[in-house]
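Retry 2 of 3 after timeout on previous attempt. Resubmitting structure tokens to design endpoint.
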């Protein structure tokens, strides 16, 4: 019989309410002992009552409810007790629960029980963690979808297992099942699986969903990069100075706009005749520009283009958005084609620029995108096995040779869903959880 476990499910510290969660076979006995005045305990009803210690002294007045197995988070009997927040009440409630035979839960142990009792898959358990640590609405939305459906990896694995059973049937009954038919079936099935895996295991989309996109502001000194960063952030973060070369390092700020997150990098102005300290900053700016998801190439529309503006325009690729800043001043030349007119000073065009940044960093099919690095690695492994199987079939190898690769692919996918995960893998997943979840 499993232990009965308890944990504080809300963050410790001062707060209006603290929630203590208890799960396991001892729950109803514990509730009866804690709330001796409760005449009966019905599941899914909210009770108000005085929680008492062993001597009958009141510890706190609580709101509590009971969920009977298997209709609970863990599929075991579960109770949640809401007591007053702060240092004393929650600790005393936990001491009381512990004195009645429950033990403190390990990190993620409630979710682990949900997994072990078959209520959720391993990837769904990981999604719970993603939801808790989500830093933007988009990341939370994606985690919620992963929690609700087991998604594409389970489908891909089922499809592969299906192909494997066809292959083995063709092997067992060669007179009844035509090998070329099975071969065609497997090739078309594999095409579908590889497409699904390629869409889902996209590290760039995963990173953008999880951490937000990296957006570098690039351009010559004094074009207004720091001012633009402030305009986007809406507050004075970067040092704005009319003297050239004030931004000597890369400043990074998280921006949350329309439920999405991105990191804005204000880089040192790139120019050739700079001092040593400034050169180091410029080097970092070059790197930030190279690795960014989006580069906002800032120009000063009130003056002619200089050689470093020209160089920046020459190296631009599809990640670049050209912004003509200082559009509040009289134009000093013709506007660069396709550039967005903005003014960091008056705010004109800044919202349109932010919208364009968000549009460029949109993750298309959030439903299928895997966000956990562990899952991405396994999906990529499955994809490369599926591709080897395809190559073997296309080269005319016998189907049962392709089956070897398919077993490997199915096993990698089984590690994602938990159907084939080893104890060590499972331990690793749950060790990242917080206590109380
Ligand atoms: P950076 O070196 O590219 O980071 O440029 P700064 O943001 O430090 O700005 C350089 C100078 O240009 C400062 O004096 C700013 O006040 C001025 N500036 C920046 N943006 C605008 C703008 O949109 N319009 C006007 N008129 N001046 C601006």
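Retry 2 succeeded. Sequence:
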């Amino acid at each position: 019989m499993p232990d009965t476990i308890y944990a504080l499910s809300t963050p410790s510290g001062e707060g209006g309410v603290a929630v203590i969660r208890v799960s396991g076979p001892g729950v109803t006995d514990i509730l009866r002992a804690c709330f001796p005045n409760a005449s009966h305990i019905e599941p899914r009803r909210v009770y108000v009552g005085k929680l008492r210690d062993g001597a009958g002294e009141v510890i706190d007045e609580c709101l509590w409810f009971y969920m009977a197995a298997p209709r609970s988070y863990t599929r075991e009997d579960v109770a949640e007790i809401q007591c007053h927040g702060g240092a004393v009440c929650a600790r005393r409630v936990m001491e009381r629960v512990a004195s009645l035979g429950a033990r403190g839960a390990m990190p993620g142990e409630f979710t682990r029980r949900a997994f072990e009792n078959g209520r959720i898959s391993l990837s769904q358990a990981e999604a719970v963690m993603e939801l808790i640590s989500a830093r933007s609405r988009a990341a939370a939305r994606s985690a919620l979808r992963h929690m609700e459906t087991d998604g594409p990896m389970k489908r891909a694995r089922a499809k592969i297992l299906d192909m494997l059973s066809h292959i083995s049937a063709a092997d067992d009954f060669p007179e009844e099942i035509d090998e070329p038919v099975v071969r065609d079936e497997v090739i078309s099935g594999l095409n579908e699986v590889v497409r699904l895996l390629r869409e889902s295991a996209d590290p760039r989309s995963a990173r953008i969903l999880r951490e937000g996109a990296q957006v570098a502001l690039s351009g010559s000194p004094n074009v207004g990069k720091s001012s633009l960063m402030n305009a986007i952030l809406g507050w004075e973060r970067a040092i704005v100075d009319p003297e050239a070369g004030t931004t000597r390092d890369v400043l990074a700020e998280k921006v949350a706009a329309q439920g999405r997150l991105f990191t804005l990098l204000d880089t040192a102005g790139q120019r050739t005749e700079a001092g040593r300290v400034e050169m180091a900053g410029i080097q970092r700016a070059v790197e930030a520009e190279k690795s960014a998801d989006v580069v906002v190439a800032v120009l000063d529309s009130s003056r002619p283009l200089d050689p470093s503006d020209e160089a920046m325009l020459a190296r631009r690729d599809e990640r670049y958005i050209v912004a003509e800043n200082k559009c509040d001043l009289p134009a000093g030349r013709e506007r660069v084609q396709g550039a967005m007119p903005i003014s960091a000073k008056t705010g004109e065009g800044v919202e349109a620029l932010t919208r364009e940044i968000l549009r460029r960093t949109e993750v298309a099919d959030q439903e299928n995108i895997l966000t956990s690095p562990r899952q991405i690695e396994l999906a990529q492994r499955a994809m490369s096995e599926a591709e080897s199987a395809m190559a073997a079939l296309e080269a005319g190898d016998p189907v049962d040779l392709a089956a070897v690769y398919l077993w490997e692919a199915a096993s990698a996918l089984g590690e994602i869903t938990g159907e084939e995960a080893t104890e060590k893998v499972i331990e690793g997943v749950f060790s990242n959880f917080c206590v109380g979840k």
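Attempt log closed. The pocket of guanosine-5'-diphosphate is lined by residues 219, 221-227, 240-242, 246-247, 269, 325-326, 328-329, 343-345 (CB under 6 Å).
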